[in-house]
Amino acid sequence: MGSTPYSEAAKGESGITQPKYDAQEAIMSGILSELKEANDLINTNDKIEGDIVYNGDALKWKKLINSFRLKVLITLSKKTTVGNYNIATEFASIAGSQSLMTSIADNGELKFADAADSRYTMFNNSGYGSSLYMADYFINLFKDRHDPRLFTFAAQTTGAKEAGKAITDYTGYNGGNPTSPYSDNAALITAKNISKVNDRFYKDPTNEPASVLSYSELEFILAEATARGWISGSAKTHYDNAIKASFNFYQTYVKIRDNISQALM
User: Fold this and answer.
1) Span 97-122, pLDDT tens digits
2) Are 260 and 152 in contact (CB under 8 A)?
3) Which DSSP helix (H) or strand (E) runs through 22?
């Protein structure tokens, strides 16, 4: 992003109405320092009142903070240092000595509730239900790998539904080319051969939680750090853990039919 207000930001009540712009390196270094301070300040024996994310569990907040520190560091992987931090050394130190997320139960996420102003953000969104269709490159990523998470993202084509194809039949899903003229995709609609977004995104008031940082993403970060030689261990193990955690997430939170649930196992 380049330079942006940071050290003097949000200080209007102190009379600073035109905060100075800090260099990006100072900002990233400052973020790392603030996250370290946040981790150090939290006592795991404390109960955090009014906590709607972890229900007051201080240890889970420490896990999220430290996992987020690793995310910040991996985004700086093309650099050797930032401020006073050696990026690879700091990553290894945190990964080796601090509490990190260990399952999807530690996900930094906000669960929705079926109450006013607390429902899933796309609930009752007319655009999702009437005019949004899936892109072919996204659909094909899942079809080519026989990845059953497809059934949680996309709806069957109208043609597949009318033909009585099983929800788990990969041939019942198709996307359009978002770079093609509208007429090309309109032809797919006429032919009943294009998938809409799965209706859970606009019909389910709670749907899946909104994630700030998930255990699955942390495992991908650890896999990359291992491949870079920043930490020891198996990059493949971390990568596989990330994939399994993603499947576990959709098994846990997405309201799906039994045959889809079996496919996700």
Assistant:
1) 999 999 999 999 999 999 999 999 99
2) yes
3) strand 21-22
